[in-house]
Write a structure and sequence with these properties.
The longest helix has 20 residues. With 177 residues, the protein is α+β, with helices and mostly antiparallel strands. α2 runs antiparallel to α3. The chain folds into two domains: 111 residues, Roll (SH3 type barrels), CATH 2.30.30.180; 41 residues.
């Protein structure tokens, strides 16, 4: 009974951890997506800001975020000198979590070789699952242009924004939805 509760709890945690913003495109629709990528910015002060990358201009991230208090979207400007790190996700990840229990159970047919095949299958399926979850994601160090990983490569980051050439004149940040 206790084992069933633990397994049910672990499955619930696993399924809840697999959520991504719905505006992110699937891999085959990346080139026609009208929105910016999902970004999580960690500031030096410890503040975490996440949302859609609207633009990267004048060494500032412009992020459309959802306030937890009022569920209203608002634009936040984050200077790059205040950024400790960031993670940018440009498409929905591939979910291969179903392979872990399926291939582990399939090892029953291996008989006594099960002792060897279960660990090998677990290593492979967990590795593939983790790689699939991180397939369409860039970390801070991937988009920097110096040896120390401190200077953000603005040309690369701009490619993932809704407005890669900056916010057009006449558009107010408050009006972006």
């Amino acid at each position: 009974m206790q084992t069933r509760c633990i397994i049910t709890g672990l499955m619930a945690i696993l399924l809840a951890a697999c959520s991504v913003p719905q505006y992110l495109p699937t891999a085959d629709k990346i080139d026609v997506n009208p929105y910016g990528s999902y970004i999580v910015v960690n500031s030096i002060s410890g503040r975490v800001t996440d949302g859609e990358l609207i633009a990267f201009e004048r060494n500032n991230f412009v992020v459309l975020t959802t306030s937890l208090r009022d569920s209203a979207k608002k634009s936040v400007i984050i200077p790059t000198n205040e950024v400790k790190s960031f993670t940018l996700q440009y498409a929905q990840p591939k979910h291969y979590g179903w392979t872990i229990p399926l291939y582990t159970v399939a090892c029953i047919s291996h008989g006594w070789f099960l002792i060897f095949s279960v660990p090998i299958n677990l290593i492979v399926t967990i590795s593939v699952t983790v790689a699939g979850e991180n397939a369409y994601e860039y970390k801070f160090r991937d988009l920097t242009s110096d040896k120390n990983g401190k200077v953000i490569n603005s040309e690369q980051v701009k490619m993932f924004a809704r407005f890669p050439y900056g916010i057009p004149t006449g558009i107010d940040l408050a009006s972006i939805k």
